[in-house]
Amino acid sequence: MLAGMLLIGACLISQAQTSKKNASADPDNLAKEYFSQIMGVANNAMTNTKLYQFVYEWLGTPYRLGGDSKNGIDCSKFSLAVYENVFNTTIGYNSRNQYANVKQVNKKDLQPGDLVFFKIRSRQITHVGVYLGDDKFAHAASSRGVMISDLNEAYWKRYYYNGGRPFEESSRTMTANSGLDNEDKNLN
Fold first, then answer.
1. 90 is catalytic
2. What CATH class has 44-176?
3. 55-113, pLDDT tens digit by residue?
4. Is 75 a catalytic site residue?
5. What whole-number distance in Å separates Cα of residue 69 and Cα of residue 146?
6. 129 belongs to the catalytic site
């Protein structure tokens, strides 16, 4: 009986090692493991390698209000760049316009790629980021540029407003004025 248990144990260990080698040889799995470690997001929560690669390439980019390049970028232009480059979708050009172009999503239902919106010392939306999973989000912070933060940090918890997912019509170009009140459209 002992010999039988040893044989079964050896087979299980051999199978586990073979499975691990096959998973490690897969470039997508390697990328997921790498980005998972760097971004602090569980490997099983990483569903879109292109999203994580894009964010990784922008990490450390300085903040610049109105900026839209790696020389400096603001939060809404960063989320716009993510959507244009990863999802081939254009969303609004500032955080309030972007919020007008999404379906609201509860915090507990956020998925990687969703937008997260904040009202920082204001009654209006003032900041936006891109949700990565495991309560982490990427954004361009005025203090440290493009970075990854945790929604459970006291600061972000305090100012979190809502999540949003672009409408299903992903091929549609989302306009800057979409969803605004008539008062906001009339600038006379």
1. no
2. alpha beta
3. 989 999 999 999 999 999 999 999 999 999 999 999 999 999 999 999 999 999 999 99
4. yes
5. 11
6. no
